[in-house]
Amino acid sequence: MDVAVGSTNPVKVDAVERTLERFRPSVSAVAVDSGVPEQPWSIEETVTGAENRARRALAATDADYGIGLEGGVARIDGVPGLSLIMWAAVTDGDRLERGGGPTLPLPDDVARRLEDGAELGPVMDDRHGTDGIAERDGAAGVLTDGLTNRSRALSEAVACAVGPFVIGDSFASRL
Ligand SMILES: O=P(O)(O)OP(=O)(O)OP(=O)(O)OC[C@H]1O[C@@H](n2cnc3c(O)ncnc32)[C@H](O)[C@@H]1O
Ligand SMILES: [Mg+2]
């Protein structure tokens, strides 16, 4: 089974590899445009970014499935403050399914900097004296003191988006 991931960020590729390990997939990383702002600011923008990445990754390759992962921030009804969210989309070129990952509360000082137009990755690097934390443990790792990390958090979104394919017949037939 060939899977194309619409990003070259190693944590996204790792999230797909670890989730689909059972199927021994060949996973390729494809640089695609998400079609949404670099820092999505709503669930809708984040889901759209994941969808675009999934479709564009599949279109750029001859893989069986395209997978898109997008991180974003959003104000969610009933949840105080600003939340970090992550969504995945999976397509076989016909059907497209979506799944969400964990939601984390962002500290107020981080939220204020994002409101001023900054991107989460650089803000986290500046705040913690790191370089490229978004390609390693991520905010999910830093803000939970390692109880989870970005790859693991993203892998939950991948599992949820792939689920509808895995429980159907089409997925098994491509193994
Ligand atoms: O190369 P791509 O695939 O774009 O990888 P990315 O790290 O930029 O990931 P996204 O575009 O999906 O994320 C949108 C923004 O949110 C940041 N971000 C999302 N989740 C993060 C996390 O866990 N830790 C740090 N930054 C994060 C990210 O660095 C971007 O600035
Ligand atoms: Mg990005």
TrEMBL record:
Cite the source lineage: Archaea, Methanobacteriati, Methanobacteriota, Stenosarchaea group, Halobacteria
* Residue span(s) of domain Non-canonical purine NTP phosphatase/PRRC1: 6-166
Q: How is the cofactor bound?
A: Binds 1 divalent metal cation per subunit; can use either Mg(2+) or Mn(2+).
- Catalytic activity from the UniProt record: XTP + H2O = XDP + phosphate + H(+); ITP + H2O = IDP + phosphate + H(+)
- Name the job this protein performs: Phosphatase that hydrolyzes non-canonical purine nucleotides such as XTP and ITP to their respective diphosphate derivatives. Probably excludes non-canonical purines from DNA/RNA precursor pool, thus preventing their incorporation into DNA/RNA and avoiding chromosomal lesions.
Coiled-coil ranges per the record?
A: none
Question: Which EC class does it fall in?
Answer: hydrolase
Which Pfam families does the entry mention? NTPase_I-T
Q: Species name for this entry?
A: Natronorubrum tibetense GA33
Q: What protein name is recorded for this chain?
A: Probable inosine/xanthosine triphosphatase
